[in-house]
Specification:
The protein is built from seven helices and ten strands. It has 259 residues and is an alpha/beta fold. The structure holds adenosine-5'-triphosphate, pantothenoic acid and potassium ion. The site of pantothenoic acid has 13 residues, from helix 3 and strand 7. Homodimer.
Length: 259
């Protein structure tokens, strides 16, 4: 079985696959201090809890936090007796090379999303990912990542707003019924919700104006369904975009090994 690990700046998601068959997914907070033994105890506890008979023989990792990869490598080596494939490393092939400035490192989550989006929707895409950062990945006709946009994430903006002010509390993002807030919390929620709707619509409009062919917009990330309620801009929402991409990249590299 394959264990695919998507390590973001806030959360790390583990998902287990038997070929193309999805088995399970588990999430923990990202912490570079978490050791291989800690991961293993946590993983086996969940497997036992769900009465699962899981035998991991392959591991693929995408990490936006370089320091975390060390302990994930130790986990893979010590407990699953294999070498992980790490997206972004030279020995991990991608279907199409990114076309960006020389020397630029593209976040591995964005590379993985690109592979996944192209597989499901073809080329000429804008992938919007609502994670720690809100990213826009632009996918060309041939499936190449050709750049994009990085904006502060929704929860990060709310945290900045409350931490930089004396009178503003911590609030969660919601879809406010009205734009005009009648209290502090409602005002803040309106600012963030409608602010991000404007940001997403505006950036997609400008990207489309810079691209020569029509483009689809695909959204992913935990907050995508919430934002879909306030805009018509998304052609589709996919909660498993990154995981699907990891499975595809793993298959591609297996075929390459046996070729
Ligand atoms: N069903 C949901 N409803 C509301 N919020 C959600 C839901 N699922 C996830 N979230 C929240 O959405 C946010 C984004 O989640 P997501 O997993 O896409 O990214 P993340 O883990 O925060 O970021 P990163 O991938 O950069 O670590 C998180 O703060 C999470 O708590
Ligand atoms: C932008 C984030 C933080 C989004 O997770 C990640 O993709 C990243 O660290 N990227 C590196 C820079 C880039 O993608 O251009
Ligand atoms: K940083």
């Amino acid at each position: 079985m394959l264990m695919a690990v998507d390590c973001g700046n806030t959360n790390t998601v583990f998902s287990i696959w038997n070929g193309a068959e999805f088995i399970a997914t588990w999430r923990c907070s990202t912490d570079h201090k978490r050791t291989a033994d800690e991961y293993y105890v946590w993983l086996t506890t969940l497997m036992t809890l769900h009465k699962m008979d899981v035998h991991i023989s392959e591991v693929i990792i995408s990490s936006t936090v370089p320091r975390v990869v060390f302990n994930l490598r130790v986990l893979t080596d010590r407990y699953f007796s294999c070498r992980p494939l790490v997206v972004g490393k030279p020995d991990c092939a991608l279907p199409v090379a990114p076309r960006v400035d020389m020397g630029t490192t593209v976040g591995s989550d964005r590379l993985v999303n690109t592979v996944s989006g192209f597989d499901r929707h073809g080329g000429d895409l804008i992938l919007v990912d609502f994670g720690t950062a809100t990213t826009f990945d632009v996918v060309d006709q041939d499936g190449a990542y050709i750049g994009g946009v990085i904006a502060p994430g929704v929860n990060l903006s709310l945290a900045a707003l409350s931490s930089a002010t004396a009178a503003l509390p911590h609030v969660d993002v919601t879809h406010p019924a009205q734009t005009i807030g009648k209290n502090t919390v409602a005002c803040m929620q309106s600012g963030v919700y409608w602010g991000y709707i404007g940001l997403v619509e505006g950036i997609c409009r400008q990207i489309r104006a810079e691209h020569i062919r029509p483009m689809k917009v695909i959204a992913t990330g935990g907050l995508a369904p919430l934002f879909q309620q306030g805009t018509e801009i998304f052609d589709a929402i996919e909660d498993d975009l990154t995981m699907h991409g990891l499975v595809l990249i793993n298959e591609l590299n297996k075929d390459r090994d046996t070729a």
